Amino acid sequence: MCGIAGIVTTSQDRPISGYHDILRRMCGIMAHRGPDGEGFWSDDQAVLGHRRLAIIDLTESGRQPMTNEDGTLWITFNGEIYNFQELRDELIAHGHVFRSQCDTEAILHAYEQWGEDCVNRFRGMFAFAIWDTRAKRLIAIRDRRGKKPFFYHWDGKVFRFASELASIVEDRSIPRTMDAQAMDYYLTWGYVPAPQTAFEAVKKLLPGHVLTLDAGSPAPEPKTRRYWNLEYLPKSRLSFDDAKDQLREILTEAVRVRMISDVPLGAFLSGGIDSSIVVGIMAGLSDKPVRTFSIGFQDAAYNELAHARRIADKWSTDHNEFIVEPDAMSILPMLVRHYGEPYADSSAVPTYYVSQITRQKVTVALNGDGGDECFLGYQRYLANQVSETIQKIPGAGLGIRILRGMLPVDIESKSTLSRMNRFLKVAMLPEADRYAHWIGYFGEADRRSMYRADFSQRVNLREPLEWYDRLVAAQPGLSAVERANLADYHGYLPYDLLVKVDIATMANSLESRSPLLDHKLLEFAARLPQNYKLRGRKFKWILRQAFADMLPPENVNRQKSGFGVPIGSWIRESMKSMVNEHLLSDSACIRQYLDGKMIDRIVRKHMDLEANNTFRIWNLLMLEMWHQEFGVSSHS
Q1: Beta-strand relationship, 137-142 and 124-132
Q2: Where are the beta strands (DSSP E) in 30-136?
Q3: Closest C-alpha among 196, 205, 174 to residue 26
């Protein structure tokens, strides 16, 4: 796991020698991603940089940028190829000669053997760039699910790329102007989906895509293409029992290959069934106690430590815990720097701290990310199905309105009453609007009333919902449940959950691996019949049944809690002065394009216990802190 960066110039009036210093600064920004060393290489048109976190082959032979035998190909690589040993054997049989024991060299030889199609043979998480010195061609590839980031800037003559946004905009010649439509995405979803970023001048390479730049052509232009997509159809014909057996086999193998490491290894343990299963499999594959790490809170409603301890005791792990206190918010400016763009998931805070304590003892940690997306673990999936059914009943809208009027308001977000109110509020809306209410922050009407007139003219307020519609339309014939699941696969998972874990772990020089996001498991799970995964109100049914022997009954049957944070009470107490300072000040950057009176109203109602505006306040706070940290202009 590392940090990568590079610059390619396509113009003789922009010599590459003038970019050596900026590339070194770009890599310096990412020192936390690779504390074990740095490397640079350059020719007359490209300069590549690398920060190394040594995991496989700790010797100097694993140093990057790395070249092939004749020096015609150079690579800078971030990630892990879990099947590199099998690839290595196959490539040796083809006549390739290896000088190291690392997976980076396997990528180079695989590219020599199979070209860009080599990526279809890789099992892992990765973002890498190969510079072909003979063809004057850059090839960049990002893993199927977007575990590893790849940001880039192209001005028509010079192409820059890096693992982090902050590294790209370290070059002050790149304007730090916000992308207005990206801000609309952010205020809707809490993240900015690819290919956009919060900066107008910087883009993200989409997961499962290849980017090429022919720097020697008369009119060079970056081109991208998709090399992998998750297909839900046709559905598998496996019986439930056979599917259970195959699931167990595939996931066990996914864990096994992710336990290959030349450095100490452990696991995040939340007490939920996903991480618990991963730890159980690890325990069965290991000849010594698995090191496990958990996070908790003083607020009992958000504390899952007891569930994690139950798993730790069952498998006799070397267990470690940490309680997050409200004063932990002191890390927010640092987190904003690492994320590089506004990011509204408050669980970034405990994820950072669990990564910090984990790094004190190990360098690699496995996690349970992806279980909810693979096996339909979110309540919104069932809610989407129920809404579709209700809308077909004549007069249902009137009944919903009457029921809503009968229910009292509860501002506690985790209560059953609060969840019922949220469902009834959106049950009769179109599908995209429902999804936005369940997972989003500010709806279209909210954003319309919050935007200042000049800003409103710069955005398409329907675009976030049209984006959802485009995602689900790409695979016709899916159920309401699977359409919401598909949107999560292409939105919430790569741009919220995976970004959170990548940033939190790499900020602590920790590598995180996700067996439940193994692409073979994803492909298997997507084609399972829906009722294998969601049976009545039983979520992740096949996963629970396949690994029931690994889980105490209390863990198998308990309701999903999620990795929440008691931010709502913290905002009213320990964080109150921070919120007031950043959001209520007339000099707040976001007041240049958002209505200050509406911001004041959102904060006041939360502080006075008139509404639960926890997530909206957090969204706005992260946006304001991003403006301040990066000196972002709201206008070109």
Answers
A1: antiparallel
A2: 38-42, 46-52, 66-67, 73-81, 124-132
A3: 174
Q: What is the pLDDT of residue 564?
A: 65
Which CATH number describes the domain made up of 240-291+303-376+484-557?
A: 3.40.50.620
Query: How far is the C-alpha of 304 from the C-alpha of 562, rounded, in Å?
Result: 9
Report which of 363, 346, 292, 296 is spatially closest to residue 325, judged by C-alpha positions. Answer: 296
Cβ-based neighbours of 10, under 8 Å, separated by 6 or more: 45, 157, 158, 159, 213, 215, 216, 220
Q: Is 570:608 a contact under the CB 8 Å cutoff?
A: no
Topology of domain 2-226, per CATH? Glutamine Phosphoribosylpyrophosphate, subunit 1, domain 1 (3.60.20)
H or E element: which one contains 190? none
Contact status, residue 532 vs residue 240, Cβ threshold 8 Å: yes
What amino acid is encoded at 36 in this protein?
Answer: D
Domain layout of the chain by residue ranges:
2-226, 240-291+303-376+484-557, 566-636
Q: How far is CA 481 from CA 22, 465, 528, in A?
A: 48, 17, 13
- State how far the Cα of 245 lies from the Cα of 478, in Å rounded to an integer: 25
Task: State how far Cα 315 lies from the chain centre.
Answer: 29
Phi, psi of 371 (to 5 degrees): -60, -40
Task: Tell me whether residue 67 is exposed, middle or buried, using C-beta atoms within 10 angstroms of its C-beta: 0 to 12, 13 to 18, 19 or more.
Answer: middle
The residue assigned the tokens 């100097």 is 60
The model's pTM is: 0.95
Which tokens go with 202?
Answer: 């910087």
Burial of 212 by CB count in 10 Å (0-12 exposed, 13-18 middle, 19+ buried)?
A: middle
Cα-only R_g, the chain: 24
Tokens 């301890």, residue? 309
At residue 557, the pLDDT reads 67
Give the Cα separation of 516 and 370 in Å (integer). Answer: 5
Give the whole-angstrom CA distance, residue 108 versus residue 88.
11
Phi, psi for residue 438 in degrees, rounded to 5: -70, -40
Query: CA 190, 192, 198 angle in degrees (round to 5)?
Result: 110
- 215, two tokens: 């720097």
**Segments in 345-490 forming alpha helices (H):** 348-359, 371-375, 379-390, 396-406, 416-426, 431-439, 444-450, 453-456, 463-473, 480-487
516 contacts 370 by C-beta, under 8 angstroms: yes
Pick the closest to residue 576 from 537, 604, 610 (CA basis): 604
Question: Please, are residues 403 and 386 in contact by the beta-carbon 8 Å criterion?
Answer: no
Residue 560 to residue 128: CA distance in whole angstroms: 36
Can you spell out the DSSP letters for 593-618?
A: TB-HHHHHHHHHHHHTTSS--HHHHH
Q: How far is the C-alpha of 509 from the C-alpha of 192, rounded, in Å?
A: 25
The one-letter amino acid at 439: I
**Amino acid (1-letter code) at residue 59:** T
Q: Pairing relation of β-strands 265-268 and 203-204?
A: unpaired
Number of Cβ atoms within 10 Å of the Cβ of 14: 13
Indicate if 2 belongs to the active site: yes
- Residue pLDDT, tens place only, 518-566: 999 999 999 999 999 999 999 999 999 999 999 888 776 666 555 567 8
The answer, yes or no, to whether residue 416 has pLDDT greater than 80, is no
Q: What is the pLDDT at residue 556?
A: 67
